[in-house]
Amino acid sequence: MKTIRLSYPEVIDRSANPETVAAIGFFDGIHKGHQQLICTAVDTAKYRGMKSAVITFSPHPKVVLRKDHQVVRYLTPIKEKEAILEQMNVDFLYIIDFTKELSKVAPQDFINHYIKGLNIQHLVAGFDYSYGHMGKGSMATIEEHAAGDFTYTVIDKVEQNGEKVSSTRIRTLLEEGKIEEANDLLGRPLIARGIVVDGEKRGRQLGFPTANIRVSDDYLLPKTGVYAVTVVHNGKREKGMASLGYNPTFDTVHERPRIEVNIFDFNQEIYGQELVIEWRSFLRDEEKYDNIEDLIAQIHQDEEMSRKLLATTS
Question: Which residues are identified as catalytic?
Answer without folding.
Answer: 260
